[in-house]
Write a structure and sequence with these properties.
Largest sheet: 9 strands, mixed
Shape: globular
Helix content: 25-40%
Order of helices and strands: EEHEEEEHEEEEHHHEH
Number of helices: 6
Radius of gyration: 25 Å
Strand content: 25-35%
């Protein structure tokens, strides 16, 4: 049996921004890889967690992504040494997506792990497996399903944008979204997504039986129809 996951409409959520900005620690890829090497020598393999947050629009699933410039990423990030995966993801989601107003804070319901990806080398490539000859992978990234509340206010740092991207846009779009995000449609295919708040299908209209029109009204009707068609043309 497929696991059920309830998805709420995009219109149920209010989007805002925080005053503080997200620190951009890496100006380019070389700086990012250099920072990864330094952390690996100090702490060993990097452990990171990211959340898959799903909404729907017109009954089609959309994934919430953080956009920075031309790039996209799932909300989440690096775990602290020894930090629990679920608690670490909750901390990251609060920092990246929860309003600063305590009354609007969100309790993040982190569910099952949907996928695991490995970075074998000091580069940008991730794989859904760790090659057998790699005894010291550089990063292990885990993706978790996160059940959103039925309604919420979401707020991101002012230099980021929160966007909802349809699954059809993500699927097999490696060039734009990378190997991890573009694989999400496959990861979700084993779930039964329940679209909450969807409009029920409207019944098909029953054709009306035409009534006979008296001859005197037929000419008037023909003239009115011609006038409408002419005006629209």
């Amino acid at each position: 049996m497929l696991t059920a996951h309830t998805v709420y409409p995009l219109t149920n959520y209010t989007f805002g921004s925080k005053l503080k900005k997200k620190d951009d620690k890496d100006k380019n890829i070389d700086m990012r890889i250099g920072r990864l090497k330094t952390a690996f020598e100090r702490d060993g393999m990097r452990r990171s967690v990211e959340g898959i947050l799903i909404v729907h629009e017109h009954n089609h699933p959309h994934i919430l992504l953080l956009q920075f410039g031309q790039g996209f990423r799932l909300p989440g990030g690096r775990l602290r040494p020894g930090e629990d995966e679920v608690e670490g993801l909750q901390r990251k989601l609060t920092n990246n997506m929860s309003p600063t107003n305590e009354a609007l804070k969100i309790h993040w319901d982190v569910g099952e792990c949907a996928g695991i990806f490995w970075r074998p080398n000091f580069d940008t490539l991730f794989y859904p497996y760790n090659p057998a000859h790699m005894t010291r992978p550089k990063e292990c990234k885990k993706l978790f399903l996160v059940a959103l509340p039925s309604k919420a206010v979401l707020a991101v740092p002012s230099n980021l944008r929160l966007v909802a991207v349809p699954l059809t846009e993500l699927y097999d779009n490696l060039a734009r979204y990378g190997p991890v995000i573009s694989s999400i449609p496959l990861l979700l295919s084993r779930l039964r997504l329940v679209m909450s708040g969807s409009l029920p299908s409207l019944p098909k209209p029953v054709p009306a039986v035409p009534k006979p029109v008296p001859p005197a009204q037929q000419e008037a009707s023909a003239g009115a129809t011609a006038a409408v068609v002419k005006a629209e043309a």
